[in-house]
From TrEMBL:
CHK kinase-like domain ranges (all copies): 133-322
Pfam families according to UniProt: EcKL (PF02958)
Protein name as it appears in the record: CHK kinase-like domain-containing protein
Origin species: Diploptera punctata
Cited InterPro entries: CHK_kinase-like, EcKL, Kinase-like_dom_sf
Length: 412
């Protein structure tokens, strides 16, 4: 397996030196268990490796790891913006997460483990458009991806939003106690949002055409929706711009694809986050709205979404009180549930505009899914047109449900 050879030759010596602090080692076993370029993580090649390594005269150690490398095709790298994606992810694993965990360790001695939401990073480097990320394979300690590829049930949503509340609370705590350092840290990330005007015009066109044809909403609501997306790129650029006091360091691609669950008695009980290639400093609701419209059904949103925001808010304020060492009531007065609800209404269009094209891709069958290797030799307009067709009316109906739900929520 080519990636295994590359790992042993180029990466393992650096990993041994920088993580294990030893250049005197013997590889007992370095075996690839699988190699893939996944449907949901198409910007990287990944290899799952079982490594047994012995340092000096110590007993051999076994490490289950994931090797993550950019695709070799340079056109694909350029098309996907791999240089920026890996810069962000490496910065997150080598600087931000260690800073977060050091901050929490100093603030929350007894609850520290509740904020350790990330896989162990053995190695991460990106220089001159080359590098790799090596992480702990969390399957070895009982974590796994949710079996359902798109839709999450009530229990998964509850534990996911509770965990996100803890993650976002770290930002608020650092802003209060070490604001200068926190903001310097957030400035190291590079924005990854699509900036081609025609892309959003084309992708949003499918739901507009569908709603006009199907007449599932009244004319006044439809017109208000069309007015809201009249300048979609300007709208999106405004939605990703941080606004105080609620801006946090966001995961940036917060959905079922990029989280791992641990289960007890068949129910999810813990979560780990990964894939930080699109991390940004923005409204916390960019994370939540994206997950809301991608990973829940319209029926679920109408029945449970207010409760989901309450779950997130409760976790946020309790975690922040823990970090600050103060009473929850004081934090609740500063970060009220109504503020969170208003923030969701103000930023719901972020999740909608991404899921407008991403959800049809996720629900499409393998035959329909976009071939990104081929698309790398085309334009963003070509990609938008492919997204606008995939899944047909059945997929567009799911996007139309988002529009109806946003209208019901008072978003527009």
């Amino acid at each position: 397996m080519a990636l295994i050879t590359r790992f042993q030759r180029d990466i393992l010596p650096l990993l041994a030196s920088e993580y294990f602090h030893s250049n005197n080692y013997k590889v007992i076993k370095c075996e690839g268990t699988s190699q893939e370029k996944g449907d949901d993580h198409f910007t990287s090649n990944t290899c799952f490796i079982n490594l047994v390594i012995q340092f000096e005269e110590n007993a051999p150690e076994t490490h289950a790891i994931i090797l993550k490398l950019p695709p070799e095709d340079e056109d694909f790298q350029t098309f996907m913006g791999t240089d920026v994606l890996y810069h962000n992810e490496v910065t997150m694993y080598t600087e931000t997460i260690p800073a977060f965990l050091t901050f929490i360790r100093n603030r929350c001695e007894f609850s520290y483990n509740e904020y350790d939401l990330f896989p162990k990073c053995y190695f991460a480097k990106w220089e001159n458009k080359k590098g790799a990320v090596v992480l702990q394979d969390m399957r070895s300690v009982g974590f796994r991806v949710c079996e359902e590829r798109v839709i999450l049930d009530y229990d998964h949503c509850i534990v996911l939003l509770k965990t996100l509340g803890r993650f976002h609370a770290i930002s608020y705590g650092m802003k209060k106690l070490n604001s200068s350092f926190f903001h310097q840290m957030t400035k190291k990330f590079i924005e990854t949002m699509i900036t081609e005007k025609s892309f959003f015009e084309i992708t949003l066109g499918r739901v507009v055409e569908y709603l006009e044809r199907k007449k599932e909403i009244d004319e006044d609501t439809l017109q208000r929706f069309k007015n809201h997306i009249k300048e979609p790129l300007k709208l999106m650029m405004g939605l990703i711009k941080p606004k105080e006091p609620l801006a946090v360091l966001c995961h940036g691609d917060f959905c079922r694809n990029n989280v791992l669950f641990k289960y007890e008695d068949g129910k999810p009980c813990a979560v780990k986050f990964f894939d930080f290639q699109t991390v940004r400093y923005a409204s916390p609701m960019t994370d939540i709205s994206f997950m809301c419209f991608l990973n829940t059904t319209s029926e679920f949103r109408r029945k449970h979404w207010d409760e989901m925001l309450s779950v997130y808010h409760r976790s946020l304020v309790e975690s922040l009180a823990d970090i600050l060492g103060c009473a929850v009531t004081g934090v609740e007065q500063e970060y009220t549930l109504e503020m969170i609800r208003n923030e969701f209404r103000n930023y719901a269009f972020y999740g909608f505009m991404i899921d407008d094209f991403f959800l049809p891709e996720m629900v499409a069958g393998p035959v329909e899914q976009i071939n990104y290797d081929e698309m790398a030799h085309k334009t963003m307009k070509d990609l938008a047109e492919a997204y606008a067709k995939i899944g047909g009316d059945s997929a567009t109906a799911l996007v139309a449900d988002m529009v109806k739900d946003m209208a019901e929520m008072g978003v527009f």
